[in-house]
Description:
Chain B: One of its GO terms (molecular function) is oxidoreductase activity, acting on the aldehyde or oxo group of donors. With 317 residues, chain A is α/β, with parallel strands linked by helices.
Amino acid sequence: MNCSATDCLLELYDEQHELEDYQSGVPRWCTDCGDNAILAAVQRLCRDEGLRPEKTVFVSGIGCSSRFPHYMKTYGFHGIHGRALPIAEGVKMVRPDLTVFVNTGDGDCCSIGAAHWIHAIRYNMNLTVFLHDNQIYGLTKKQASPTSPIGTKSNTTPRGSYLDALNPLSVTLGVANASFVAQAVDWIPESLFEIVKAAYHHKGLSFVRILQRCPEWLPKSLDPWMQDPDRIQLLHHENALHLSAGLAKTYRNQLLHDPLDMNRAREIASSEDVIPVGILYQNRDIPRYEETRQTGVLRTTETVRKGFEAELDKYTV
Amino acid sequence: MNAPETASKAGNKTITTLKEHIIEIISDSGEGAQRCGQSLGSIAARMGNGIWTTEIIPAEIRPPARSVAGASGNRIRIGSGYVTNGGDQTDLVVAFNEQVLLGRVRARELKPGCIIFLESLWRKHPDLNVSMAYIEAHDRLLAAGHRVIEFPMEQECQLLNADPKRGKNMFALGMLCYLYSFELQMARDQIALTFGKKAQSTIDANVKLLEAGHQWGEANLDFSFCIPATPAARPQIVTNGNTALALGVMASGMELCSMYPITPATSASHYLSEVFEQVGGIVHQAEDEIAACAFAIGASYASKCTVTITSGPGYSLKQEAIGLAVMAEIPLVVVNVQRGGPSTGQPTKVEQGDLMCAIFGSHGDAPKVVMAAATIEDCFYSIITARKIAEAFNMVVVVLTDASLSSSQQPFNRPQFNESWLAPPFDQSPVPEGARAYDWDATSGLARRFVPGQPGGMHTVTGLAHDRDSHVAYDPDINQESLRARSLKLAALQKTLTAPEVFGDEFGDGSGDLLVVGWGSTKGGIEEAVESLRAEGKKVSSIHLRFLQPMQPGIKEIMQRFKKVMTIETNWSDSPDEEIIDESNRRYSSLATLLRSRCLIDVDCWSEVRGQPIKPSTIRRIVLAKLTGKESAPLSS
């Protein structure tokens, strides 16, 4: 987008925003819920990037994580179950000037909204999508989700869930036009923030799966990984994330991974013993649907009148 | 009604002057009967005649050749004056084989003594089964009193070294132009327009076929017709309802149509895809109906009121999203081109079965505006009105059309572009200090809407019950208050509407023995029947409702001035003749049900769901029976 001179001048007078400028209400999530960590990282991003609250929209579906927009002092759209992505696409299509984020849960995205997820990847619109994956339905009180590990005991699977979990990273990497696929965990705030930031800066659909704890329904499910730093595999590359000294000291299982290497990304995505954290895939060259579909026509009353009259001419007898 | 007025002789040829004629051109799928019929309609319209064309469409793309259920083609009613509907039975048919014709005979679509031009190539077909079938059908049609003329289309086209499979339709068109005394030059112009995108050689080849057909008529027919035209005062355009709808989208100021393919709605989006980008508009084909609606809602939310166009099953799928738009008060235009239901039903056939679903669909109380286009011209203007209402009231506006309007063609006054159609009706002035997301007006329920990009208006819209700040409501009073506000908006709109006009009210007293109430595409048929009955002195009138929710004021008062009231609709109603049907269990037609509950008036109904527009003669029969009290449906007390 080009900026007019007036816009630039206005920019100069823009106030520096504080964290509070993005905070709205007191989150009603459980203590220790991973959503809190994601909210903190995203609010920090907004402040650091100086995002204008009125030009920022958070779109969500239904579920615990989808309450997210209510806690942001920006524009927000808390939609219906599974449909956050098409709503966000509609926003972006007609208003490319807006920064659009999507918050969706594992039930919302990978189950009821799975069709939209697949197609959103293919559209590759400039959206930043956070998959809040706690591997369980929270708000409806503990039912197995598509990402619940096999054997998960829940209210609908009291003797353990029957199916292998769906891997959101592998699925995303299997769809045409995937352009940014990353994974974060809620308990490493530094890398969570860095990944959120990289996702925000990516032009295209950035898909970030964030593994998060559900203290209420699956309190121990991620313990094996939380308690053993070696089972976290940090991905780094000069074209992706750099590891800080502090992070590198705690998490010694590190992997140099070129985010343009799709085959390797798919291998990493299917790791079971370790949780890969970082950018699995990034390709900046994939066209974005909202740009592909730009008509190049400056829409004025006169353009519409001319086009309309020309069509009427065809049908006039 | 269309008895010959005069017949004159020129040499040994008879030219008969008619008030109107109904012509069918039918073939196997892909042989071009549709194009022939549409072209004939357009040529007649150019001549200044009134026309109504109706597509005859099989459900499959390529049904088996020479099959009774495979008829594909067009039915054209040509009149001296304005034609408002498809009319009654057919006067003249051009059939490319006898099997597709038999389908029409069995559907009782042919008038007794119908003139039939039958492709004669099958008589000498090498396959004995085929030739026998032809001869048998030919003889039976003759015996039934039809006038069968064997028409050597393929043979004649072969003389021109043309591919007869592709050229017959233009040959038939030429013959018909001769038969109805249309100017050949008008037909040539029409071909140039129809094939405008093709090479000049294609146009020339088709013109040659047209001329050959014309010459064949001149050399071989000893009769022809003339339907004198009374040209309209203003320039006319001829389109079908879906094209009119798409033109309406183009002119409405909307910039985005978000859709998913479904019959019979999709041709509107086909046309829009072709032309919308020229005026900076976009057609987005979503991954499914739900996404199409959600995408539209997202765009509308972000300040660009959007339309989603669908048909019954798609409309059902969108319900949850429509409820969201109602709850969050996001303007949205939803078009439902109705077809036969439930489920997949009759995808290519007309029905008015979605009225209840349009009004009451979505769970909970989800008030939305429901309009119905009654004419092809209405398909155009309804969209412009719908968008204005959607944005002025922050509501969902559903526009109902149907499979009959969508594919029928009719001339109407060329619309005169109006800049105000494009104007954004919502307030874009700066957000005042302390503004609230939903500051519902105590009387009207209306609230100003703030959209992304407006500083100071930030809030999160939600499908959850919410308060004036769009915060999740935990207080029971807030839910009561917000439902009230959303409901009052319908009343506020209703206050701006005027009473429907009574058709057949020359003395202005608006009273009589029977009032027929209709909505949607039945308008032309109902009014034609009412007009002809009034000409015979019957005290019958009609009103036609364009707003189904909210309903226009004054309807009850009009109904009270008539001794009897009935609706005529193309949706299901139980017949009171059924052994187990009585007043305690009879299911009335949709509009009748609505009128009965709203007005506490004993509104009767008659309906059929044969997948065809109701013929004016059928309506006459029903209305006469109701008037004389001889109807099968006894008036309930």
